[in-house]
Amino acid sequence: DQQVKQNSPSLSVQEGRISILNCDYTNSMFDYFLWYKKYPAEGPTFLISISSIKDKNEDGRFTVFLNKSAKHLSLHIVPSQPGDSAVYFCAASVPTTDKLIFGTGTRLQVFP
Amino acid sequence: EAQVTQNPRYLITVTGKKLTVTCSQNMNHEYMSWYRQDPGLGLRQIYYSMNVEVTDKGDVPEGYKVSRKEKRNFPLILESPSPNQTSLYFCASSLSRGREKLFFGSGTQLSVL
């Protein structure tokens, strides 16, 4: 049972345009969400996070939106750059534990 | 340089031959964790540790052991590897909580024949 789902395995976007990566979750108890980026042959690196008490968090070109009623999380990258080409994982934190549940990942390709 | 170091990067072994994947961090982090990445399944947590001598199961602990005798080290032990443990493994650490920013190692690609 996949509690955190990234239904789009891949996404292709032109440089300069907006990239929107989506993540759906089933457990309404999740209280903290994170996005990680992974380049080939490297480990994931932290990108941005959001608490469930917020609906938006912004860091430079990256913005994460949280819609709790829809149990939906999205990451917006504006403007997209070729260096953003990577696999993006969303993750959700289980309250009162230190478990993180990761999604299956979305491969973003930004072309010139 | 702050980092999480895993060794080896690549490992090919045979069924039943015990192996250890080492993980070390130089950031004095309390929290450490192991994940495996499989196609279509994302990253799944194997074990995690809140501090020295404190470990707990993640979502897929079967067939794995861990120990945390020192703060900096968190080795992953496969006592009797099987082909279904062929995977890409990542060690990660964070300052104090699993929900905080995790620092990942570069990964260990394990093949069990």
Cα(first) to Cα(last) distance of chain A is: 38 Å
Biggest sheet descriptor of chain A: 6 strands, mixed
Number of helices of chain A: 0
Count of individual beta strands of chain A: 11
Q: What do these coordinates show?
A:
The complex is a heterodimer of chains A (112) and B (113). With 112 residues, chain A is mostly beta strands. Chain A is built from no helices and eleven strands. In chain A, the strands form two sheets. In chain A, strands 2, 4, 5, 9, 10 and 11 form a six-stranded mixed beta sheet that branches. The termini of chain A are far apart. Chain B is mainly beta and 113 residues long. Chain B is 0% helix and 50% strand. Chain B has strands at 4-7, 10-13, 19-25, 31-38, 42-51, 54-57, 65-66, 76-78, 87-94, 103-104, 108-112. In chain B, strands 2, 4, 5, 6, 9, 10 and 11 form a seven-stranded mixed beta sheet that branches. In chain B, strands 1-3-8-7 form a four-stranded antiparallel beta sheet, with no helix packed on it. In chain B, strand 4 and strand 5 form a beta hairpin. The chains are: A mainly beta (112), B mainly beta (113). At the A-B interface, strand 4, strand 5, strand 9 and strand 10 of A face strand 4, strand 5 and strand 10 of B.
Defining key terms:
heterodimer; A: 112 residues; mainly beta; 6-stranded mixed beta sheet; 5-stranded antiparallel beta sheet; B: 113 residues; 7-stranded mixed beta sheet; 4-stranded antiparallel beta sheet; 11 strands; 0% helix; 50% strand; globular
Topology record:
The complex is a heterodimer of chains A (112) and B (113).
Chain A: E1 4-5, E2 10-14, E3 19-25, E4 32-38, E5 45-51, E6 56-59, E7 62-67, E8 72-77, E9 86-93, E10 100-102, E11 106-111
Parallel strand pairs in A: 2-11
Antiparallel strand pairs in A: 1-3, 3-8, 4-5, 4-9, 6-7, 7-8, 9-10, 9-11
Chain B: E1 4-7, E2 10-13, E3 19-25, E4 31-38, E5 42-51, E6 54-57, E7 65-66, E8 76-78, E9 87-94, E10 103-104, E11 108-112
Parallel strand pairs in B: 2-11
Antiparallel strand pairs in B: 1-3, 3-8, 4-5, 4-9, 5-6, 7-8, 9-10, 9-11
